[in-house]
């Protein structure tokens, strides 16, 4: 496996992933609607809503990292967000199946659980939040990610495609930490104070690409700590007193969203924290 097709290579995470793939010796082709002067790899301008274009662009690839998406329910009409994310994912998986490409890593989101953008207040059924928790989206973006995961699972069942959906939490680059109000926990209640340093998101993506996943898997990709300076038990007592099912006691600022499955299946672990930047 040497030739990697990367959709969304011009995006925030895609740019970092492309660089690290090349550092590891992979031959990378970026598929995006625009070219980027930050990328040093081959670039193709591709409309991912067109299956023919996608199939032509993926020809000759050994694996696909699919990161292209509208990343939030903002800036576009809801129907466009849903259609863009679901159709592009279907086309990437269909093209991979037609071309006998055996591995696809697709970018999902913790928004699939339904809490991040919920228009009506809602709480998880239990803590810590893990991959066994049902997906309960209330809006177009979380729904699109849920459907994309089901699509990947279908292709895995149908053709034996190895597919991994990575449920990234809020991705933060080192230069962005200072902009966030760590001391205002109410601002991050809806994401359960979950975040991941972009360098750890990249390492998880490469670990998924290089793993022998077998059946379809959806994995949380998040830091080991919360995006707050308040102990996790105190956060839950204050902001989620209605959730009585706590399946463990959290030590210090331990993450409330579990990354244990990604650690065990991928041999991956996050190594970065906002505490290394903000004191």
TrEMBL record:
Taxonomy, superkingdom: Bacteria
Record bears the keyword Cell inner membrane: no
Keywords: NAD, Oxidoreductase
Keyword Oxidoreductase: yes
GO molecular function: oxidoreductase activity
Cross-referenced InterPro entries: Epimerase_deHydtase, NAD(P)-bd_dom_sf
Domain (NAD-dependent epimerase/dehydratase): residue spans on this chain: 4-212
Protein family (similarity comment): Belongs to the NAD(P)-dependent epimerase/dehydratase family.
Full protein name: NAD(P)-dependent oxidoreductase
Provenance organism: Cohnella terricola
């Amino acid at each position: 496996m040497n030739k990697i097709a990367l959709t969304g290579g011009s995006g925030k995470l895609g740019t970092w992933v492309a660089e690290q793939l090349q550092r590891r010796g992979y031959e990378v082709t970026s598929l995006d609607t625009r070219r980027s002067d930050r990328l040093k790899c081959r670039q193709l301008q591709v409309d991912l809503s067109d299956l023919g274009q996608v199939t032509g662009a993926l020809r000759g690839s050994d694996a696909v990292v699919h990161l292209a998406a509208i990343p939030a329910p903002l800036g576009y009409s809801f129907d466009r967000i849903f259609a863009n994310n679901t159709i592009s994912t279907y086309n990437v998986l269909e093209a991979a199946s037609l071309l006998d490409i055996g591995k696809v890593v697709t970018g999902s989101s913790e928004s699939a659980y339904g809490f991040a953008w919920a228009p009506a207040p809602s709480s998880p059924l239990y803590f810590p939040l893990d991959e066994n928790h049902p997906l309960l989206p209330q809006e177009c973006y979380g729904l699109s990610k849920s459907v994309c995961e089901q699509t990947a699972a279908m292709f895995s069942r149908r053709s034996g495609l190895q597919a991994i959906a990575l449920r990234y939490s809020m991705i933060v680059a080192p230069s962005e930490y200072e902009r966030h109000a760590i001391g205002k926990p109410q601002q991050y209640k809806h994401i359960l104070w979950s975040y991941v340093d972009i360098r750890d998101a990249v390492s998880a993506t490469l670990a998924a690409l290089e793993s022998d996943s077998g059946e379809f898997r959806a994995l949380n990709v998040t830091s080991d700590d919360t995006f707050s300076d308040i102990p996790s038990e105190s956060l839950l007592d204050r902001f989620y007193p209605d959730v009585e099912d706590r399946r463990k006691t959290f030590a210090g600022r331990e993450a409330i969203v579990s990354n244990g499955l990604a650690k065990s299946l991928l041999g991956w672990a996050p190594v970065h924290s906002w505490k290394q930047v903000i004191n």
